[in-house]
Design goal:
Family (chains A, B): Belongs to the FAD-binding oxidoreductase/transferase type 4 family.
Structural class of chain A: alpha+beta
Pfam families (chains A, B): FAD-oxidase_C, FAD_binding_4
CATH topology of the largest domain in chain A: Uridine Diphospho-n-acetylenolpyruvylglucosamine Reductase, domain 3
Catalytic activity (chains A, B): (R)-malate + A = oxaloacetate + AH2
Number of helices of chain A: 20
Number of strands of chain A: 19
Radius of gyration of chain A: 23 Å
CATH class of the largest domain in chain A: Alpha Beta
Cofactor (chains A, B): FAD
Largest interface: A-B, 95 and 95 residues
Enzyme class (chains A, B): oxidoreductase
Largest sheet of chain A: 7 strands, antiparallel
Oligomer: homodimer
Number of domains of chain A: 3
Strand order of the largest sheet of chain A: 16-13-15-14-18-19-17
């Protein structure tokens, strides 16, 4: 098969990447009609105010403190990059060794401007062989490596902590093959998610995942972090849809498990080790993934619910009546909607309610799907589960409804300093932590809000204050983690652990499991050179 | 949560287990109106003739040769069970230590009567704690252990090779919890698949997997072998639907990753190590699994196709037009149908065709599904992709259509000695190996037939001869494996490797991967006591 190139973004769209956003904020420039990187629907940022009040992106972005200083991390005894190393890299990836500090800036700092490393070199391999040679060299020389995709992570997993060599997948952006009978795509790790989706749509398929960061994130990074996102309810986990991986191990050995088979029960399924291990066990260089057919019809509806019990019952009814066409079931509380209205001037077509539910269907027959949706609407309105509903009549309206849910993050950021938690809970208890925290925090928090992927049991819990306060943080942590652990929940539903959350792993996994993880790390990366200081806790 | 017991099979249904089948064949008894264990639709075995001509179950079943003799295996230097060991086991599982040779017989021999171990003791723990204490003892004493569920495996993975202690999950049959909002079931490993499905159906849910052996197989064994089966096309791999596992490691340590969360990105996903590792890395004691709602409507249709190219085009059309309601796409060739008719006297409602396709839909609206199916039928008949079609008008007819596909195994067994291969291939090449083999083998084979789960790229390739012939075997192996490897296929799509296929792993996985598997085995089971002689090749 002759690989062919996936076209890259046109220049103006490149501006929409986190890199652009950061630059715009830093410069305080007026930016209009550009995509907000956190929204899959291309919501607009109309002024630099977009950055104001954001806990991580103030209007005049100050220098981001070095992670090593802010968190007082001790550098591990890796070697430092020498002139000889640079010469060796230049031989492996000629003309693609970046050492210019300004060029390195965007890759040393995460897009939330929370973490900063001080890497002196970034490498841009194009092939697996180049990645293998780079890692073989780094392994021999005991040089630490930070694999980096689109750098859109939420937990500081994609930027160096010290001077790790940044290994970028940006130039590994080739589609290797697509089989239109089976819907199996094989591509390099650096392909951008949205671009892959566009490529597939031309052939009446779609990617099985969709994320706010799709315009920048790389499929390799998606797999390395086991990304969830908006199509999870319908198409399930990447663990089920990723069919094969090619991975380069810490010592440069290439593990080619890039099969395109739906079924393969020959030995241990090694690729699963690398899905969600955040680049700490190996560098993913290529991905084989099963893609669903593009749905013929998509419907979106918004409902108001009188209470959380009714939200849950609506979800059960929805699963029963919409069945196989249900593709999203998102919820938000009244305060979320108020903040969206206040800060973004977005109007809800549904009157004030304690809760709102956004339902999306994706099916193969517009008529059937509309029938099912109206039957469902009749049932939930008639039974009082929902007080009011609005079904999008066209794509524009559907986008407007999605914007109410998708732009919550933006609205909250404009309201003050935001303490963010991304947790999984048994769906029946999903909202209890919100009411519990409201009582616990009282007036010390401006808002405690809850929204998220109810269909996946995934709550985005956000606490807003006028400004950062250590005492409020102390009231939140470890309380939120302990509460979550008390419900056998997950302290990181879809964002992973990275640098930020590595030390809370123990709230969701027992010591025996953490110990096995550490033994796996030692087995596959005995020198610990791959993405150090991430995922596993500092202390055993 | 108070565990409650899943009712076991009534006695007459117990007769339907592989154990019954074997007994019936051995005794030459006339058995009527009993379930054939290989059929999910309860096809009937009307006389002992059911066993005649079966390569693995002759009418007067001879003694099965000991595996160690037949395959000349060298026993590894494990300890042998002493009186002190038996006393220790009796303290751990009082009254549940089986040493009677007759009672042990059914657990020493696999249901296909191909492999025989000579274990002297079988243990029946009820709790995870008991499993842990047993393994701790065995680990200290260097005693080998053969974990056993329903003993329904196809590759000799579930019976001992020598005198390994058989650790049965049969009494670990409790449902721990079921959440009806999320559809998440948590249960012990020894629950029987069909029984779980029945339990769920009462609550309008189903298990996400279905197998011919469902009346006997244990969910723990299903997970340990990453079972595929009949619902794979619709609900996907167990890797996506299993949410949590509890596993006891070789040294008795309990790894509790039994979460009930759809999303949990905290650290490495250890449960994936145990899914499909065939009991060689740990003993699965409990499972948390996401269950889909029970479909309101199920339709089954059979079509005749003029060629394999048309089968493929029908599949593409089917995916496009039936979309989200498509739940099975099975195919069989003309020779399969002829053998089914000849040996089982089952009539096809579709006239003689080179190929047949069985399509099943499962959806939430009978009317919509019928509409979609008839639209699809119109399209494929109009375009000449299929020459004729028959849609089941009721459940009885649906079962009859399924029987044509499901009883192929039985029909082939009656025709002579069967060489069986279960391979995955790129769907476009799925049938090429059949035509290739016909040309290669010529008259030395009575029949070379192909059928299987086309939607999953899974071919059941069967070669029939009057009797076993070493020269025919030599013409088949390693040729079939090399052919499969040449297409980047899998030499074991859903059956696993067990004892029978462990040495062909290298046809589907590169040496670097096999080496990592061996290092994982050494990491988690350094003494190699768990299911020895299985899954990994004899030589590195």
């Amino acid at each position: 098969m002759v690989p062919h190139r996936v076209p890259r973004w046109p220049t103006w769209l490149f501006c929409a990447s986190p890199g652009w956003w950061r630059t715009a904020c830093t410069l305080g420039a007026s930016v209009e009609q550009r995509r907000w990187p956190g929204s899959p629907w291309g919501a607009r940022v109309t002024s630099p105010l977009a950055c104001r009040g954001c806990s991580s992106t103030p209007s005049r972005a100050p220098e981001v403190t070095l992670t090593q200083e802010r968190y007082r991390v001790q550098r591990l005894p890796f070697s430092t990059v020498s002139k000889e190393d640079l010469a060796a890299f230049e031989r492996i990836v000629p003309g693609r060794v970046v050492t210019d500090p300004e060029e390195l800036e965007a890759s040393n700092v995460d897009w939330l401007r929370t973490f900063r490393g001080c890497s002196k070199v970034l490498l841009r391999p194009r092939t697996t062989e180049e990645v293998s040679r780079i890692l073989r060299h780094c392994h021999e020389r005991n040089l630490a490596v930070n694999p980096q995709g689109g750098n859109t992570g939420m937990v500081g997993g994609s930027v160096p902590v010290f001077d790790e060599i940044i290994l970028s997948t940006a130039l590994m952006n080739q589609v290797i093959s697509f089989q239109s009978v089976s819907g199996i795509l094989v591509c390099q790790a650096g392909c951008i998610l949205e671009e892959l989706n566009r490529y597939l749509e031309e052939q009446d398929f779609i990617m099985p995942l969709d994320l706010g960061a799709k315009g920048s994130c790389h499929i390799g990074g998606n797999v390395a972090t086991n990304a969830g996102g908006l199509r999870f309810l319908r198409y399930g986990s990447l663990r089920g849809t990723v069919l094969g991986l090619e991975v380069v191990l810490a010592d440069g050995a290439v593990l080619n498990c890039l099969t395109s088979l739906r079924k393969d029960n020959t030995g241990y399924d090694l690729k699963q080790l690398f899905i969600g291990s955040e680049g700490t066990l190996g560098v993913i260089t290529a991905v084989s993934i099963l893609c669903p057919p593009k749905p013929e019809a998509v419907n979106v509806a918004l409902f108001g619910c009188p209470g959380f019990a009714e939200v849950l019952k609506t979800f059960s009814t929805c699963k029963g009546m919409l069945g196989e066409i249900l593709s999203a079931f998102e919820f938000m509380d009244a305060e979320c909607m108020q903040l969206v209205r206040h800060h973004l001037h977005l109007a809800s077509p549904v009157q004030e309610s304690p809760f709102y539910v956004l339902v999306e269907t994706s099916g193969s027959s517009a008529g059937h799907d509309a029938d099912k949706l109206s039957g469902f609407l009749e049932r939930v309105l008639g039974s009082g589960l929902v007080t009011e509903g609005s079904v999008a009549a066209d794509q524009r309206k559907a986008k407007m409804l999605w914007a109410l849910r998708e732009r919550i993050t933006e609205a909250l950021s404009r309201d003050g300093y935001v303490y963010k938690y991304d947790i999984s809970l048994p769906v029946e208890r999903l909202y209890d932590i919100v009411t519990d925290l409201r009582a616990r925090l009282g007036p010390s928090a401006k808002h405690v809000v809850g929204y998220g992927h109810l269909g996946d049991g995934n709550l985005h819990l956000n606490v807003i204050a006028e400004a950062f306060s250590a005492s409020l943080l102390a009231a939140l942590e470890p309380y939120v983690y302990e509460w979550t652990a008390g419900q056998q929940g997950s302290v990181s539903a879809e964002h992973g652990l990275g640098f930020k959350k590595k030390d809370v792993l123990g709230y969701s996994k027992p010591p025996a499991a953490v110990q096995v993880m550490q033994r796996l790390k030692a087995l596959l990366d005995p020198k610990g050179i791959l993405n150090p200081y991430k995922t596993l806790p500092t202390r055993a």
